[in-house]
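Example record used in the benchmark description.
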Amino acid sequence: MDTIKTEVYNIIENAIHAAIAVGELAISEIPTIPFSPTKTPEHGDIATPIALGLAKQARMAPRNIAEIIVSHIDPDAHPVIREIDIAGAGFINIHLSDNYLYDTLQTITEMQSAYGSCDKGAGKPVQIEFVSANPTGPLNIVSGRAAAVGDTLVNLLNAIGYKAIREFYVNDAGGQVQRLGESIDVRYRQALGEEGLEIPEGGYQGEYLQEFAQTLIETDGDTHLRLNTDERVALFRDKGIAHILAQQKASLERFKVDFDVWSSEKAIRESGKPEEIIQLFQDKKYLYEAENATWFRMTDFGDDKDCVVVRGDGEYTYFVPDAAYHRDKFDRGFTTVIDLLGPDHQGHISRLKNFVKALGLPDEWLEVSIIQQVNLVDAEGNRLDMSKRRGQFYTLDTLIDELAETVGEQFAVDVARYFFLMRANSSHLDFNMELAITHASENPVFYIQYAHARCCSIFQQGTEQGITPKPIEEVSLKQLAEPMEHELIRKLAEFPSIVLLSAEAREAHRIPHYLHELSGIFHPYYNQHRVLDPADMEKTNARLILVKCVQSVLKNGLTLLNISAPTSM
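Model output (structure tokens):
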């Protein structure tokens, strides 16, 4: 489709030049010619509003401009165009030739699982950091959304030729893990019968820590009471991090997300790189001393206030290891780094970008996107409150468990991933549990999977009837003359452009939307048209090619989402 759009673009542009040359259009500069798919087949395959864009320059009504442009296009001279007409105020509608439709089926048949991919990225290394939840508790459903989005974006970037990797940054240092150790210490001593203890301010209340403390007692008894408080808290901190991180890894594995790299804040802090960052900022005069702390001149970069990077006790604030970590990413050779952050990090974006700028790295090197809040909505429409510190949170594993009770383990993960991906990252997501557990076509992921399974069932039925599909070279594709067949092929032709756009715009939700639209064309076609007809094998063979192409594109799209493509349901 992109190749065809380029050809049509040149045809329209040459027509405008011809109109200028004979004095029919008084235009000094031709802007970029936009194209978009038409909403109905009656309006052609693609349309351009270029006449509306030229109206001010030409001082002429858009429809008159469109008529002039079209008068300089001879469809007979351009095999790609079957017909061209004008609609409304001046939209130019292009009806593409049937050959383009048949070429689409040929391309899909030849490329199969590679259809939709390209080499636009030319192997450039890209790192996407996502989830990166603090190792202080189980993963909640907001982290689940980030996991689904990040994983899919890596697949999309790799599909268009980049060498993208998944990376998880473990925040295993600093105040939050210290409070984790203190919280475990309280739970441990409480479980051994000590009274009058309370979780420290900012600590973690969750039941999961009571369970972990009980595990410590079952394994080690009360031996840890022999340590002094600081030693015991440090021990519990390290044990707690290891235990919770193992749980997080298991949850992600269950969710079909496999990280390529696990980085550690503690390792960054111990590497000496934070000290190098401080020295670099000092050399660049970005630091100053005030109020018993070291400050970074964030206002030099347009921020409204400076920020502390070294406290009075010599401890770094989280800005320093963050800056060091991003310098480490650059040193590893990534040409683009994408950070997917949670909704509570909105205020962190500008400061992080300013630190990257202060390091002397290119502005466009770092991209930051917020994965917005997920609200779990029950059957009555109530939203569940989630707070890790108060222990009132809904975990990713709990979500999958509840879905699995109704739809099974395999489909539970598919449903969760699809629902997390069906809205733009910037939009809040209401996760509708009632719809998610509906094992019927009303459930959008099942609607798509049913379409794939139906394609597979057609070939199974063909085998049972003794019908062997012919190679595409031996098939007359002109048998595919029904409007719904052309509509299906036009939608199949869009897939590579959708993949490219989704990857470049970092908008994973475009893929589930596309697959749902494709399924919405295929299901009615399946119901209204007989594919297997032994009395008309020419049409049967052509339709089997079409169904095979639909099956391939559905599977390719679901694979990008890391959602299964079942052969039967």
